[in-house]
Amino acid sequence: GDSVTQMEGPVTLSEEAFLTINCTYTATGYPSLFWYVQYPGEGLQLLLKATKADDKGSNKGFEATYRKETTSFHLEKGSVQVSDSAVYFCATMNYGGSQGNLIFGKGTKLSVKP
Amino acid sequence: EAGVAQSPRYKIIEKRQSVAFWCNPISGHATLYWYQQILGQGPKLLIQFQNNGVVDDSQLPKDRFSAERLKGVDSTLKIQPAKLEDSAVYLCASSLGPTGTGADQETQYFGPGTRLLVL
Fold this sequence. Notes:
heterodimer; A: 114 residues; four-stranded antiparallel beta sheet; 0% helix; B: 119 residues; globular
């Protein structure tokens, strides 16, 4: 079945450092890809998404490009802030039902130190 | 626009007791999802509704879990009897579904979750 593999955390960075969180997926067809973020004590929030190959999703300084040839959707940010500390989940849309449902990775915890 | 509402936020019960969670999706969203998120893992889909019908309940442990969305709006998820391994965060999400267009149909919006501890 479909699956998502993320780099294991925790990831600890200093403020203004460059961030990469790797994500690869296995899926049939051409799924949509998502990054969700979960701040402490809160539910998941959609960070960005891409619906077809070579699309770049972006939001709040974060970017990810849908790479079909490498089945990857790595999350990047050029300069992280303390407020970016959270758990980041990569997900693919599984179209097993009449409408898709999300398959999530295990999450990567990011801690940004001042 | 109000987001997805869930209650209660926290619940502690003993094993073999029953518990129920409630979810009110974003107004106008046809599709509603319940996920289980065990500590240190990503959310796992339990059940998906479109309006008041079940689309996918293949991963719902039906011997103890049940869910309903009788009027196609809010939904309840019940566990009876609870086991220790049911300790998790239960997340509700909603999406526009077929009433939306393009990528908007599938984007899911999550509630804050209910944290369940079974002792």
